[in-house]
Specification:
Number of helices: 5
Oligomer: single chain
Structural class: mainly alpha
Shape: globular
Largest sheet: none
Length: about 100
């Protein structure tokens, strides 16, 4: 399934990275990095793509995504994976607890 990146999420990431100019090619590259970040973080935490965007977005997931993109833009995605491993594990536990409580209702 393709991960859709909304214009609002792209704008938030650009703001976080202090990208103030518009460039279609750069936006396309950044959108790809956002998609890869969402896919990676989701695979490690159990979150869904919709948890990163919109009114009900999880702020901690977005923070991780912004940092993933920052690291990826610097060619250091592997360092992100090491530096944020405990955060990803913590979010995984939180998602498992949340999902378990929803299934018991």
């Amino acid at each position: 399934m393709a991960i859709n990146v909304s214009p609002a999420l792209l704008a938030e990431v650009k703001n976080y990275l202090d990208i103030t100019w518009n460039d279609t090619d750069a936006d396309a590259k950044l959108t790809g990095q956002i998609r890869r970040g969402i896919a990676y973080i989701s695979s490690k935490t159990g979150a869904t793509a919709s948890d990163f965007d919109g009114d009900n977005a999880d702020d901690r997931l977005k923070e991780l995504l912004f940092n993933y993109v920052l690291y990826d833009r610097s060619g250091a995605a592997n360092e992100f994976k090491q530096n944020y491993k405990s955060d990803l594990v913590g979010l995984r536990i939180r998602w498992e607890v949340r999902n378990a409580s929803h299934t018991e209702d």
